[in-house]
Amino acid sequence: MTFTCDGVDEIFADSTDFTVGLEEEFAIVDPETLDLVPRYEALHAAAQEDPVLAESVAGELISSEIEIRSGRGEDLADAFARQREARTRLFALAARHRAALASTGTHPWADYREQPNIDTEHYRRVVDGLQYVARRNNTFSLHVHVGVNGADRAVRVCDRLRGVLPTLLAVSANSPFLDARHSGLHSARTQSFTKTFPRCGIPDLYGSWAEYRRYIELLLATNSIVEYTQVWWSVRPHFSFGTVEVRICDAQSTAAESDALAALIVACVAQAARDEDAGVPLPDHPRRLLEENFWRAIRFGLDGDLIDLGTLREVPARAAIDGLLHWTSPVRAELALDEPALPEQNGAQRQRASLQEGASMQEVFARTVQETQQTYAQEAAA
């Protein structure tokens, strides 16, 4: 069936502002060696016996990866409740099947050439179309969907978030290791994924649904894509759900970090929508400056500086986070959202610090997997 954009504006017209959907990707690893293991098909089959997991578990590109989805939450609290229940059930299921789940942006030492892809029509198409680029992509991330009413408004909210994306990446950086090496980066996942996949990273500024639709339809007409999900921008309107989907972030090692990051993203999307409603001028930052900040977030994470796009001066990444909190304070008050409880150090900083203290890469990853097991698996019961 050939995809068309017909009906997408109706989906967004029916969308409810600030509903929330969460998607968390986990690596499936051997509990003893912590190597990636291709257990997705077995876990997915077992999940069908659980009515919660049957609805929330999904596959991604490789068989050693599993995703859980909250489904549509009426607000952030509802999405959290749904996701926490699914997390607890999934971690228990994995343990019963002699598997562990890890949550970093990359697996530190896995050889991508040894990872089988899952056998679905969508991912067969991705691998066939992208070849090495798809096979090389063994990465794990957090995606957050926020309902936005109106297709024009959703596209313009994406436009407004372009300058915010590097800060969100710096907050989430959690992948210093790749190919059995310390990469020297804070988010090797982002370098590996967004700098190789086509139609990826920080999007262009479109200004309207009509313009975005023209772009998608051009790609379809020129046989560049066959479905809209082959546009992998770090923020994009999601045609099936009527949401703005933020896709920039590394997977988080602890449940608390994942929740705090999701809360910050929801606040950013909602504040961008409120700015659009109020007629606040749409930022049109040069792509070269957005890309500079994007690189700085990849390379230095929260240890580095970003360019303040208003003053064109360097500011510490931590100060950029304060700027996001200040900007989103009105909508957080409106929606009764607490200030996100972001940690003093993010995942990349903790892993790099452990390495500098003398731990091996294997020991650092083992500690990170333990963090994940102790937080995602137990939080609902706690």
UniProtKB/TrEMBL annotation:
It holds the Pfam family GCS2. It comes from the Bacteria. Gene3D superfamilies: 3.30.590.20. Keywords: ATP-binding, Hydrolase, Ligase, Metal-binding, Metalloprotease, Nucleotide-binding, Protease, Signal, Zinc, Zymogen. Its EC number is 6.3.2.2. Residues 346-359 have a biased composition (Polar residues). The keyword RNA-binding does not apply. GO terms for molecular function: ligase activity. It catalyses: L-cysteine + L-glutamate + ATP = gamma-L-glutamyl-L-cysteine + ADP + phosphate + H(+). Its cofactor is Zn(2+). Residues 340-359 are annotated as: Disordered. InterPro entries: GCL_type2/YbdK_subfam, GCS2, Gln_synth/guanido_kin_cat_dom, Pept_M10A_Zn_BS, YbdK. ATP-dependent carboxylate-amine ligase which exhibits weak glutamate--cysteine ligase activity. Belongs to the glutamate--cysteine ligase type 2 family. YbdK subfamily. This is Putative glutamate--cysteine ligase 2.
